Amino acid sequence: MENGGSALENERERREAGARSAEERAALERRVAERTAELRAANERLEAEIVRRRNVEAALRETSARYQAIVEAYDGLIYICSQDFRVEFMNARMIERTGRNAVGELCYRTLHNREEVCPWCVNERVFRGETVRWEVQSPLDQRWYYIVNSPIRHPDGRISKIAMITDITERKVSETALRESEQRYRRLLASVTDYVYTVEVRDGRPAATQHGPGCEAVTGYRPEEFSERPYLWLDMVYPEDRPAVIAHAEALLRGGPAEPLDHRIVRKDGAVRWVRNTPAPRFDAHGRLTGYDGLVKDVTERKKAIEERIRLERETAEARERAALERASRLASLGQLAAGVAHEVNNPLQGMLSHLEAIRRELPPDFPRQESLKMVERGIETIRALVHRLLWLGAAHPSETPVCRVSEAVAFVRELLHSSMERSRIRLHIELRSPNVEVRMAHGDLTQVLMNLLMNARDAMPEGGDLRIVCEREGDRALLTVSDTGVGIAPEHMTRLFEPFFTTKGARGTGLGLSVTDALVRARGGEIEVESEIGKGATFRVRLPIREEKP
Ligand code: ADP
Ligand code: MG
Fold it and tell me: Is 513 exposed, middle or buried (0-12, 13-18, 19+ CB in 10 A)?
């Protein structure tokens, strides 16, 4: 049985072995199939990875090209530097400005030609992660730059600083120019005393107004305020002047003549100013008023100046009048006094003269003191002449106009003073340029005028000198000029010369000569002027109305 059993066994074994190998093959095949699938998947993944990488690479190339393009297109300077101040990158414009590609060099040397780190360096803040924006004027080229400094992080953890720099010199220059022109404008505005306004008229009524920028300087109100308040132009008028302003505007709207109007305004700050409003109306083709433009000018200063001038003129006129009145009243009382004295003196004088005449008649012709008698007689005559003059002062003057030939009065006075002048070593020069001129004054008065002037001239030349009398015609007046080479008149005396009793001659003087002369000349519508330089002499000019020669 054993053998039989073992064949069976073998068969079983063989069958079992066969089954095993089939199983193994199947397993193998399964593994191969799995592996193949795995490999395919891996292959696919690889391919996908390759594609992805290719894409990334392309994208990277694109990005870097884009960045490059951006960097080069940037209209400014860019550089990158490391933490230890080494330049790592410069864009083309930066290279151009520096003159070379300075990668590897120190930034402060490259950029600002400095030997040490710039005092304004912001690296510390940038490397702490901050972005710093600032402006600087480079000492290298004096130009202004706007700089943005930011940190950039490298994949290996290093940090660099990127600087993007824009040249803002033009902007700075125009900013300064703008600031200056603004200041100039403000200054100009402050000095503006005029502005222009425009009024549109519709249906005979003002519809819209517009005020020029100068209005603020003149009124204190801005153009917008005038636009917002349509009646501000009237509200700002000084209340008392409003009726005139309204009437003026209404006349304009009716097409009346456009005349300037001066009125007051109350400025926004409360100050009252004078303005002159000069309107210019506009008409359409049919002659209808469409509006008017106007100029408003601050005339306060001018008004003030005019008022001041008027005030001054009034004051001087008043002062002059007062002085004239004073002089007239002094002369009048003096005249009364003089007339009284003259009257008293006149009678004994007449007596003296007639007694003298009687004595002379009874004296023998060879009486040895005849000359002395003549002197006494002449003295009495002189006193009588003086007394007559004093009587004239107190008398009411005749109103009829007498006439005197100037050359005759001059000849007469020359005759009277001839010897006295000679004694004083005074040379008399007489120039009759218009010998026939006649003035409206009595002969005796003109003689007295000349006598007073000549005697004063003589007194002014104690050491002798030249006395010149010129007589000429000046339009409808005769001009008599008496000049001497004497001591002259002190400036402080000039205004007092014509005052009665003003004299610098002490007891020898009366101070009446010039005041009488002035009164005589004025009474005939004439005037006297005086000019003098101390030490050189004095010149008196008398102007008198002439009597026109009869044809
Ligand atoms: P009086 O001759 O009596 O002093 P007047 O009225 O004639 O009075 O003159 C007033 C003053 O004017 C004089 O005292 C003198 O100071 C001054 N004066 C007048 N004429 C002259 C002159 N030609 N030169 C200098 N001073 C003069
Ligand atoms: Mg005198």
Answer: buried
**What is the SS3 assignment for 547?**
coil
Does the structural domain 399-547 have CATH classification 3.30.565.10?
yes
* Class of 192-298 in CATH: alpha beta
Residue 488 in contact with residue 503, Cβ under 8 Å? Answer: no
CA of 541 to the centre of ligand 1 (A): 14
CA of 249 to the centre of ligand 2 (A): 67
The ligand 1 atom at the shortest distance from the C-alpha of residue 508 is: 3
Q: Does the beta carbon of 460 lie inside 6 Å of ligand 1?
A: yes
Q: Ligand 1 within 6 A of 516 CB?
A: no
- Tell me the pTM: 0.40
**Residue bearing the CA closest to ligand 1, atom 23:** 457
Q: Which CATH class is domain 72-165?
A: alpha beta
Query: What secondary structure does DSSP assign to 93-142, as a single string?
Result: HHHHHHTS--TTSBHHHHHH--SS--TT--HHHHHTT--EEEEEE-TTT-
62-96 pLDDT tens trace: 888 888 888 778 888 899 999 999 999 998 888 98
Question: Do residues 503 and 511 touch, judged by C-beta distance below 8 A?
Answer: yes
Q: Look-up: residue for tokens 């030609």?
A: 113
pLDDT in tens, 282-305: 888 888 888 888 899 999 988 899
